Amino acid sequence: MDVWRVLRDASPLLFQGLGTTVLVAVAAILLGIAVGFCVCLLGRSAHRPLRALAAVYVWVVRGTPMIVQAFIVYFGVPQLVQLAVPGFRIGVLEASIVTLTFNAGAYLAEIFRGGIQAVDKGQVEAARSLGMSSSRTMYRIVLPQALRIAAPSMVNQFIITVKDTSILSVIGLADLVNKAKVYVGSSYEFFATYVLVALFYLVLISVLMVVSNSVERRFGDGAQDRR
Amino acid sequence: MAPKIVVEHVHKSFGALHVLRGIDLQVGEGEVVCIIGPSGSGKSTLLRCLNQLETVSDGRVTVDGVAMSDAATDLNAARRNIGMVFQGFNLFQHLTVRRNLTLAPVDLKVMSRAEADAQAGRLLARVGLADKVDAYPRQLSGGQQQRVAIARALAMRPDVMLFDEPTSALDPEMVGEVLAVIRDLAEAGMTMVIVTHEMAFARDVAHRVVFMADGCIVEQGTPAAVFTSPREPRTRDFLRRVSG
């Protein structure tokens, strides 16, 4: 085992993979927040079919492994679409972002829902009694408090999303894990390479935690009210 | 002069539970009405029907000429004219005292931010909390929070104020400071409906006392009449129990 050789030869590959991992994770987190937010509002809609749609989406995502979702998105869906559009293909990167967004969106929707439910009903009544509309009440009163309550769970979900990118190596995403597999295949340096990969993830997620902690401190309890 | 609040034949049911059973009530301009009665008698529900935090199952509620119980009424506009103070204060926890007082007036374009800020200062001075303008609600005592809540309701410059057991969640030593603020408002001529368990306060501040039991108004009259010589056995019974 030659640690220095691994560091020298594998590092450039792993940094490439890290770039892909970060790109996919960041895209899925940002899109997942948007999807989760929409699904959460859908789930609170006055129309039963919309609520059912949101519930089914969350149910499907939670009830199936992400590896199967990835296979369906990458291999299954194109086959279906090819019936209408011959030669249709979806890129690995796109399929990865779609799968991970789909996944994170469902969990974030549940996290947002929990946060909103945890806000005291009296807050809504006070706002409505002042003449604020229900949507204004939601954006000005409920959501700011719900997001604070949900922040720790949201950070937790972001961490899971970062780590879940590794699952997408099975459909060929050129992420950290995939690059490591390639290097190990020629060098047989299993231990040093995978420990190095673990360190990459550890640093990545530590950075994420430091950033989110400082965001939480800034907007969390006792923060100055910015206007 | 037309009465400020008119309640006609109001019924309210929660599922099978018939909470209000045909309420008729009028409140004149500048009048202070205290509603008393045992818990579960529908006092708070009646109060919440006045600004339609609870919709009525049947009957009509009119406040300042606006048909509150009419489906076509713009409730958001109508509620600006009706301040409400809750048992649990319900201050916006994520906002400073100042923002609690300025959010709705500025957001709903009732006044500019500068006007709202100036008004917040005046209102806080009026409730004796001028130094708490930058505090967060959780940094205040219950009595202070409730005084801020009163100021917040006043910030929309309402014509009518509703109080839902404003001192029931307070430690005994803080009741007085909140009642003093409400008394000031009464003396300033504000039209008010107050649901309360503070009999001495009701006797002192109310122009009229309304006794409710089992979803009905059993008896009403001047404080002297209701407290000193109640006509109804249920009123006598209730007053005997609360006076210990």
Helical proportion of chain B, percent range: 25-40%
Look up the CATH topology of chain A. MetI-like fold
CATH superfamily of chain A: MetI-like
Q: What class would the helix/strand composition of chain B place it in? A: alpha/beta
By DSSP (H or I, 4+ residues per run), the number of helices of chain A equals 8
CATH architecture of chain A: Orthogonal Bundle
Main beta sheet of chain A: none
Count interface residues per chain for the largest interface.
Answer: A-B, 21 and 30 residues
N/C terminus separation of chain A:
58 Å
Binned, the helix content of chain A reads over 70%
Shape of chain A: flat
For the termini of chain B, the CA-CA separation is: 40 Å
The CATH C-level name of chain A is Mainly Alpha
Give the number of DSSP strands of chain B. Answer: 10
Can you tell me the overall shape of chain B? Answer: globular
Number of strands of chain A: 0
Mean pLDDT of chain A: 92
Tell me about the largest β-sheet of chain B: 6 strands, mixed
N-to-C SSE string of chain B, H for helix and E for strand? EEEHEEHEHHHEHEHEEHH
Task: Report the C-alpha radius of gyration of chain A, rounded.
Answer: 21 Å
In short, what is this structure?
The complex is a heterodimer of chains A (227) and B (244). Chain A is mainly α and 227 residues long. Chain A is built from eight helices and no strands.
Question: How are the secondary structure elements laid out?
Answer:
The complex is a heterodimer of chains A (227) and B (244).
Chain A (H helix, E strand, L loop, with lengths): L2 H41 L4 H16 L2 H17 L9 H27 L2 H9 L4 H31 L11 H12 L2 H30 L8
Helix pairs in contact in A: 1-2, 1-4, 1-6, 1-7, 1-8, 2-4, 3-4, 4-6, 5-6, 6-8, 7-8
Chain B lengths: L4 E10 L2 E11 L4 E5 L6 H8 L7 E6 L2 E2 L7 H5 L2 E4 L11 H11 L5 H14 L15 H13 L5 E5 L7 H16 L3 E5 L3 H7 L2 E6 L2 E6 L1 H6 L4 H10 L2
